[in-house]
Amino acid sequence: MDQYADAGDGFDIARLVPGFRPPPHPDTAGAGAAQLRAADMRMRCWRSPLAGPLAPGSARHRDAVCRMFRDTFNPYRPAVLDWPALAPATLARIVALPIWDIAVQTEGKARLRMAAYAGTVLDPGMRAALALNAWEEHRHKEVLSRMVAAYGIALAPESPYRRPADPEWAYLVTGYSECIDSFFAFGLFELARRSGLFPPELVDTFEPVMQEECRHILLFANWAAWHRARLPWWRRLRFEARVGAAWAFLAWERIGLARSVGSGGGAGADAAAGQTRGKGQDNNFTLHGAQSVASGDVRLSDLLALCLAENDRRFAGYDERLLRPATVPCLVRLVLRCLPRRGGRAARTG
Ligand SMILES: [Fe+2]
Ligand SMILES: [Fe+2]
Predict the structure, then answer these.
(1) Distance 339 CA to ligand 1 centre (A)
(2) What is the mean pLDDT of residues 312-337?
(3) Does the chain have fewer CB atoms within 10 Å around its N or its C terminus?
(4) What SUPFAM superfamilies does the entry give (predicted)?
């Protein structure tokens, strides 16, 4: 199996997706505030110029999805991001967050799994979109790596990243995992912003990364719809079984049946794609981490409502004819109906 040494960082998507060309290096260092604002705006709002429906599986749908992903690309460069000086208490709070190893490794695995699957896709437009998604995960890893270096956060050594033996399965697990994690990350990020515990410059630096995850799961939801609509019924059955298995696996992982939080076990999305986790950080941070980023107690119902509102807000700028990830928002709406309302007995996170 191929191995990709990480230090360096020598990851090369073109090895997995022949013909892939990284986006050109823009001069964002010399760009004015107006240009950066325009790029940020382009990333958040997009509408296909085509009139009429975009039926999943059709060439029109595929073209719209691929064009959305291309047109909303944000050319920021990790190398020129500013890392603000932090007060000692803020620095200590950031260093103590139990997420850095898992965050860096998750991006490292996501880029490889997405690129590995992209390399198997025959449609040139969809292949290019998925390869660009992998490239953006690589950029997320670079942003995180630069941040942990700037703030002196020690990382556990990364295990070698191995090319998945079954790229479609690895991509399904990674894609649905992103749908779950991004939904909760949107709410936690807003909670952190409102708390005032983190400097606004740092929040602003990560804002494009958050919006990129929104674009990623928008792409994934539409890829899944496009892909399944084009399958003959017997392959469709197999695909739906794999989707069900991916959800079952991720649910099993996240509700903690796989391992107790922080015990350092090797189960999880890593194991699903044939890898072991290097260190037992909190892969359920999205479900347990509200107290780490909030200035006071957070009611579970308030957190879930915030996640829903942020999810809707982040998707609002994109063409409504493109499909959105629906499972997690639907489940959360259901849970919210069952939770006691404000004034009743409080259910709390943490
Ligand atoms: Fe990412
Ligand atoms: Fe992503």
Answers:
(1) 31
(2) 97
(3) N
(4) Ferritin-like
Ligand 2 centroid from CA 141, angstroms = 10
Q: How far is the CA of 72 from the centre of ligand 1 (A)?
A: 16
CA of 100 from ligand 1 middle (Å) equals 13
Q: How far is CA 112 from the centre of its chain?
A: 14
Q: Is residue 349 part of a domain?
A: no
Whether residue 12 is contained in a domain is answered as no
Query: pTM, whole model, 2 decimals?
Result: 0.87
Q: Percent of the chain at pLDDT above 90?
A: 62
Residue 281: which CATH number? 1.10.620
Q: Do 68 and 319 meet the contact criterion of CB atoms below 8 Å apart?
A: yes
Q: Is residue 25 part of a domain?
A: no
Structurally, how many domains does the chain consist of?
1
Residues near 148 by beta carbon (within 8 Å), at least 6 away in sequence: 100, 104, 155
- On whether residue 31 sits in a domain, the answer given is no
Residue 152's region, left for phi above 0, alpha for psi from -120 to 50, else beta, is left
Whole-number Å distance, alpha carbon 347 to ligand 2 midpoint, is 30
Q: Which of the two residues, 136 and 11, has the higher pLDDT score?
A: 136
- Look at residue 30 and tell me whether its pLDDT is greater than 50: yes
Cα 189 to Cα 33: distance, rounded to the nearest angstrom: 24
Task: Note the ligand closest to the C-alpha atom of 103.
Answer: 1
Q: Which range of residues forms the domain containing residue 120?
A: 56-338
